[in-house]
Every structure is written in structure tokens, then in C-alpha cells.
UniProtKB/TrEMBL annotation:
Residues 63-181 form the Multidrug resistance protein MdtA-like barrel-sandwich hybrid domain. Belongs to the membrane fusion protein (MFP) (TC 8.A.1) family. Residues 96-156 form the Multidrug resistance protein MdtA-like alpha-helical hairpin domain. The lineage of its organism: Bacteria, Pseudomonadati, Pseudomonadota, Gammaproteobacteria, Cellvibrionales. Keywords: Coiled coil. One of its GO terms (molecular function) is efflux transmembrane transporter activity. This is Membrane fusion protein (Multidrug efflux system). It comes from the Bacteria. Residues 195-267 form the CusB-like beta-barrel domain. It comes from Zhongshania antarctica. Pfam families: Beta-barrel_RND_2, BSH_RND, HH_MFP_RND.
Amino acid sequence: MLVLSTVVFGGVFGMKWFGNKAMNDYMNNMPTPAVTVASSKAESMSWPNRLAAVGSLVAVNGADLTAEVDGVVSAIHFESGDIVKRGDLLLTLSAASEQGELKRLQAQAELAELNRARKAQLYNGKSISKAELDTAIAETNVALAAVEAQKGRLAQKIVTAPFDGKLGIRRVNVGQYLGMGAPIVTLQKLDPINVDFSLPEHYLGNLTTGLAVSVGVDAYPDEIFQGKILAIEPKVNPNTRNFDVRARLANTDLQLKPGLFATVTITLPGENVLTVIPRSAVNYTSYGDSVFVVQKSGDTVPVDEQEGMAEAGLEVVQRFITLGEARGDYIAVTTGLEVGTEVASTGLLKLRNKQPVIIDNSNAPMPELDPAPPAG
């Protein structure tokens, strides 16, 4: 009975082990099914030599006008949004006490001048010493200086436009007490207007003043504004390794406003001949960017769409690349790919190294350098 039981259970477990081994061998040797993807070949393209950056619009002259001294607003001589010239009167503070003080000082100055004239006559008649005449002259000069100082204090009671420009929204009212430094209105010179942006240090040798720039803003998505580089910062920021650039644009219609976000394109001389692929062909990962290169496979592989075995087909091999500038639906490859190399351009999530593939470009999207949404 013991021998019989050993034989029976041994046979059962042996068959179980043999069945599992056969199943594992079959699964290990089972060919990987092919997946259908679209493909595209790396092309050589000549792109205009240009740089892209982002920046902000800045007024050529811009200031938030404030009061230099305390006082009550007695008169306002502008409206919100006015266009003013340099020297135009904008606001007046009450200055009755200052004007009274000016008249007192002017009277003192007149008296000091009369006293100086008398002392001069007496000195000419040798009735007084030179020291007394000098004292009278000094007193006259002090009185006149006091008058000029009071006129300066009175001038602080009015606010004028420091340059030509457009006013913003008025922040004060007649009768309001205005403290020193309190905002009155903003004044911006809008034509022309500047755009400030930064570029990495390795572009420093490519830029010179006078190069053409094209600027776009979100407020006017269908318009491009043209200008030229005005100045290049002579030092590089040691923290960011970027350098600042300023360009100037015409703004005759006063459409552009300071503070707007701007996309800047700088046109450089010549063209670049680059190897490019569709952006959809790039597999972006944290450990590096790569593409799946299509090549011939020596194995026969089953095809999902039909029964049986396919003839020796295609497979993909993952290859890491270095990317450059992107334009439209294309991106430049600086290293790792040659012109004419075929790469998978869709279905990248289904792919892995040595994955059998079937190429079907019948419904593949056509990449464009300047894609635009359909009208309507």
C-alpha cells in the first residue's frame, strides 16, 4: 500500500510539474505580437537662423506721479487717459500760507536792498566802514535766497508732467488731503515702447544692436510687431547665466502697453541646415529623450489583424538623441540620428526595445512648420 501510494502521488506530481514546465517553455518562446504604428523619416531642412525668448513690454519713460509735500488738493487740471505734453499742469495743492510767507520774505528782501543802497552811499561818503557795507550786502543776499527757497516750496505745491505721454486713472479728488508720496496718476510714454528679455550666455556672441525682432502679445494674437535691438547688457547675471537685451518697437496706435507679456523672435543672418523629425516621434523621459528607430527583423511574427504567421517583418530599437530647437510640428535633432532614418511617429506608449511593428501611414497626421487651426 505504501509503495502503491508513493507511485500514484509521484505520478500525479510528476505530471503536474511536466505540464507547468511545458506551459512555461511555450510562454517563453511565444513570439511577441506586432503592433501597428505610423512612421516618419528624419529630414534635412533649412530653417531661418533665429532665436526665441520671452519678455515684458516696458515704457521708454514711465512714472507714477506723486506729491512732493503734504497738502489739500485745490484743483485738478487733467482727466483720466489724457495725452499730455512735458510741463503741462496736472494738479495744484492749497498754498495760501506759503504764498503769504513768500510776500513777507519779498518785503524783507526789498527792505534789505534799500538798506544796502543807503549803506553804499554812506560808504562812498566815507561815513561808515567797509565792514558795515559788507554786512548789509550779506543781509540782502540772505533775504533774496530766502525768497528763492520759498518759491521752491511753492513750486512743490503744483504737479506738472515731466515728459510727454499718456495718463492713467486719476487717484485723487479735489478737497482730498494728499500726503507726501501719495499716488496721483501714472504717466507712460507709449510710442515708441521697449521690450526687455533675457537669453542664455552662449547666445551672447550671436547678437548685435540693430538686429530685427518680431514680437507677439496675447492681447493681439493675430498681430506681429516689428522692432530692432536697442541695447545688450554688457554683463551676464552670475546667478542665472543669462544676459538682458532691450529692443524698441514702434507703437503709433498705442496698442501695446507696459507690462504685457511678450514672445520675442530675433532674426539672425543666414540659415541653419538641421536634421528634423516630427515632435510626436520623441519619447520624452526623465532619464533622456529617445526615438524608436524602425529596422528589419529576422524573425517571423504573428499579426493581430490576420491569422497565421507574417513573413520576416520590422521591429523598433530605442535610441537616445539630443534635441534642439522646435518649430511647429517639427523638432531638430542635434546628435543621435541621421537623415533618412525611419522612426515611429505614433503609438510610442505601446513600444519597447525590439518590439515588432507594422507600419501603416494611411491615417498618419502630416506635420507642418507653421500649423494653424482650421478657419471657423
